[in-house]
């Protein structure tokens, strides 16, 4: 009994391994099945497996035979269905990826409209007007930049500098004329080259501007730049560069300037008088004019230092003298007596006052941009009344004395004030135009 139970336990432990014993146990009695399993079941499969691998490489059907060993007839039927279900799952599996991309296209179209909308803001009108002057984005933002022409006309500053140098060598009065020109341009309609336009009723026809000069220098620089960089550099930028270079040529500081101005379309003589400072103005009147432009008293004193170069005609300071019977008598007690006599001799000719005669604005140093002008003011040698009154006001006199003691201080202040002056009322971006010829608006 114990032996029988041991055989049953042995058979139970070995039954999961072989596949054939279940079919034999169905046909044989339980008593004989364990005996057979105990005596030969383990060796029998081991002997039958070796021949099977030999037949497997010989022909593919033997590969299906192991699956059909338990019941050859039923197993072939399940063998054919597996291929059919396998294609069926195979089709859904590819279908899932196909459906996944289909939802994703909607996700990708969503970003695609965004790029399509972003180019339009980058390519609308702002870049197009700026392309006439420069590709730089600064014109689109309506801002000035020192590197405005870095890509569109990199040689602009060198070209203007060469023209100014050549013209100044031929005519020493050119630097002073260019400095005066930038003042008269920027104080009326802003720095937009409106003072260059010729024609009836333009700024250029006002009596205050009849004595202006340096137009030929601006025109020469413009012609050169139109060859090198057509329709790119504005006349207003040329004026600012030319005046800056005139100061450098005469020994003044080389100051950086921002560029990107466009030329104005309006030039009216009626706008001149209410904006330009008259030679008979008091400090208060000049201060009011400067304040209206956003400039300070320090700017007034500093920019008046531009008179350290250049000259003025005798009729511009006639109010400081009494003219009678062809003679001149000083009426301004603040004027140095010796200096007054020098002016009388310079402006009197054949018993008359030669109103058109030019006199140096800065006695003894009119060809050099330095601080001698301020020392002359303290000594009563200011040529124009607007010069002389700067030492009659406590605030402006203190600044005059400071600059008379320090040329470096004057130069540093000049750089700052010139930057403010040359950004008055500028036109950028879509405002104004780039003139082909500085003396007339584009037709």
TrEMBL record:
User: What top-tier enzyme class does this entry carry?
Assistant: oxidoreductase
The cofactor note reads: Binds 1 heme b (iron(II)-protoporphyrin IX) group per subunit. Binds 2 calcium ions per subunit.
Any one cellular component term from GO for this entry? extracellular region
Entry-linked InterPro entries: Haem_peroxidase, Haem_peroxidase_sf, Peroxidase_pln, Peroxidases_heam-ligand_BS, Secretory_peroxidase
**Which positions are annotated as binding Ca(2+) 1?**
185, 188, 190, 192, 194, 203
Compositional bias, Low complexity, is annotated for 13-41, 130-139
The molecular function terms of the Gene Ontology recorded here are: heme binding; lactoperoxidase activity; metal ion binding
From the UniProt record, list the reaction(s) this protein catalyses: 2 a phenolic donor + H2O2 = 2 a phenolic radical donor + 2 H2O
- Region Disordered, as annotated, extends over 13-146
Family membership noted in the UniProt record: Belongs to the peroxidase family. Ascorbate peroxidase subfamily.
Function (record text): Removal of H(2)O(2), oxidation of toxic reductants, biosynthesis and degradation of lignin, suberization, auxin catabolism, response to environmental stresses such as wounding, pathogen attack and oxidative stress. These functions might be dependent on each isozyme/isoform in each plant tissue.
- Protein name, as recorded: peroxidase
Species annotation: Digitaria exilis
């Amino acid at each position: 009994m114990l032996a029988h139970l041991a055989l049953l336990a042995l058979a139970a432990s070995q039954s999961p391994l072989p596949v054939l014993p279940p079919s034999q146990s169905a046909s044989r009695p339980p008593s004989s099945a364990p005996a057979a399993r105990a005596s030969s079941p383990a060796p029998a499969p081991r002997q039958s497996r070796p021949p099977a691998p030999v037949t497997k490489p010989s022909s593919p059907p033997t590969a299906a035979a192991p699956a059909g060993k338990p019941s050859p007839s039923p197993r072939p039927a399940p063998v054919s269905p597996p291929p059919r279900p396998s294609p069926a799952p195979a089709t859904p599996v590819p279908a899932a990826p196909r459906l996944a991309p289909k939802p994703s296209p909607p996700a990708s179209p969503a970003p695609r409209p965004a790029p399509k909308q972003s180019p339009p803001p980058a390519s609308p009108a702002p870049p197009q007007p700026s392309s006439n002057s420069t590709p730089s984005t600064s014109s689109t933002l309506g801002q000035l930049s020192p590197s405005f022409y870095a890509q569109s006309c990199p040689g602009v500053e060198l070209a203007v500098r060469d023209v100014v140098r050549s013209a100044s060598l031929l005519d020493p009065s050119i630097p002073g004329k260019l400095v005066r020109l930038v003042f008269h341009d920027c104080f009326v309609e802003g720095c937009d080259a409106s003072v260059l336009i010729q024609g009836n009723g333009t700024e250029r026809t006002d009596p205050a501007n009849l004595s202006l000069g340096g137009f030929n220098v601006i025109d020469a620089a413009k012609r050169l730049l139109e060859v090198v960089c057509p329709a790119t550099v504005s006349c207003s930028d040329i004026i600012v560069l030319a005046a800056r270079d005139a100061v450098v040529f005469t020994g003044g500081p080389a100051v950086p300037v921002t560029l990107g101005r466009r030329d104005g379309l309006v030039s009216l003589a009626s706008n001149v008088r209410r904006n330009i400072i008259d030679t008979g103005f008091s400090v208060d009147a000049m201060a009011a004019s400067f304040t209206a432009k956003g400039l300070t008293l320090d700017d007034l004193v500093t920019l008046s230092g531009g008179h350290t170069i250049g000259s003025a005609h005798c009729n511009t300071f006639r109010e400081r003298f009494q003219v009678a019977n062809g003679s001149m008598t000083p009426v301004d007690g603040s004027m140095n007596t010796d200096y007054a006599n020098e002016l009388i001799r310079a402006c009197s000719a054949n018993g008359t006052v030669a109103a058109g005669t030019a006199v140096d604005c800065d006695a003894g140093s009119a060809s050099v941009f330095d601080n001698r002008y301020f020392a002359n003011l303290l000594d009563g040698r200011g040529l124009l009344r607007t010069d002389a009154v700067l030492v009659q006001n406590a605030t402006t006199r203190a600044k005059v004395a400071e600059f008379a003691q320090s040329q470096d201080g004057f130069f540093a202040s000049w750089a700052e004030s010139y930057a403010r002056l040359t950004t008055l009322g500028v036109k950028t971006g879509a405002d104004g135009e780039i003139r082909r010829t500085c003396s007339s608006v584009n037709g």
